[in-house]
Design a protein that fits this description.
With 163 residues, this protein is an alpha/beta fold. The protein has a single domain, classed as Glutaredoxin (3-Layer(aba) Sandwich). The chain is built from five helices and seven strands; from the N terminus they run αβββαβαβαββα. It has a seven-stranded mixed sheet, with no helix packed on it. Strand 3, helix 2 and strand 4 form a beta-alpha-beta unit. The longest helix is centred in the first third of the chain and has 12 residues.
Length: 163
Amino acid sequence: MRMSLLSIIFCSLLSYTSSAQTPAQTIPAFTFYKLDKTPFTNKDVTNGKEVLFIFFDVTCDHCQHTISTLSKRISECQKIAIYLISLEDKTAITNFFNQYGKNLPGQKNVTILQDSKNQFITQFGPRKYPSVFLYSAQKKLRLYDDEDQYLEKFFKIISPDKK
């Protein structure tokens, strides 16, 4: 499997930063881009709903599992806004979703974003791929995790009626 240059940079940055790096406790300022290159900032984040940010890399096996699980369970996530962010280019992101997240593009509550300015790492403070951040409607961090096997914790909060 190929490892992208951005993945190498991310891993290098993470090994350089403190292992005690803490995730952003509130949604920080940022500018990402939709796949059509339209800017998307923190001011565009849906108000009055819980917000899920997932930072992923297309070459990451754990990210593939996370996005695949989200795609299969998207019907449980209709009450939240979901933002999926990658450092990759449009072609790589599109191919990734065609393979692992076919049910996600086109959903009203899902926005796929490119981090072409490399802001996510410094602004949100992820420890590794995939990093999943759940923020309250008041934009305060409710839950952070970067282990795909613990994704169920998010679904228990997002969709408490499902067992």
